[in-house]
Design goal:
With about 180 residues, this protein is an alpha/beta fold. About 25% of the residues lie in helices and about 15% in strands. The chain is elongated, with a radius of gyration of 36 Å.
């Protein structure tokens, strides 16, 4: 009888060794209908009044979304006011400067435009689109530079759609001087 007990003990030791090496134990979640597991062996049922065995939680690495901030181009920007709203170009210039744009002094523009437009020099359309998404106005309108604006800077011409613009944190436009 002793050789039989030794054989069973040796088999148990080999099983424990294999579990230790491969780190695998039967997974109760792979059970199939009929009381057996996906491997075909019968599924163990817990004794009455006891909880079924649980597998330890698996550590996971949380997925953190990557937020990228657009890189502000080095090209200078000038803001021109084509409206009757005083200091609008100066306020927009200050706002854009705070965002990191390289600003030129603001000025006026005639005639009055209905829609704010960003005019860009050749090869700078991507920068103009980025700027247009930031400036006041109802549309992100961009166009190649026209003879009335400088051809070496991005030019924002504020139109009538920007007259009610408030910078973040402003509750009302500052009084005109």
């Amino acid at each position: 009888m002793l050789p039989g007990i030794l054989a069973v003990g040796a088999i148990a030791a080999v099983v424990l060794l294999l579990i230790g090496i491969f780190g695998r134990t039967p997974d109760p979640s792979t059970a199939v209908p009929g009381g057996s597991t996906a491997s075909g062996s019968p599924q163990a049922t817990p004794a009455p009044g006891t909880s079924p065995p649980t597998t330890p939680p698996v550590a996971t690495t949380p997925v953190v979304p990557v937020v990228t901030t657009p890189v502000i181009p080095d090209i200078p920007v000038v803001v021109l006011n084509s409206t009757d709203t005083s200091l609008l170009a100066a306020r927009v210039t200050e706002y854009l400067s705070g965002l990191g744009w390289a600003m030129e002094p603001p000025d006026n523009f005639a005639p009055v435009l209905e829609e704010t437009t960003v005019y860009y020099p050749e090869g700078e359309e991507a920068a103009a689109l980025l700027l247009a998404a930031t400036v006041p106005g109802d549309a992100d309108t961009v166009a190649p530079a026209i003879p009335e604006v400088a051809s070496d800077v991005l030019t924002v011409v504020l139109g009538e759609d920007a007259i009610d613009w408030l910078a973040p944190g402003e509750t009302s436009p500052p009084p005109s001087t």
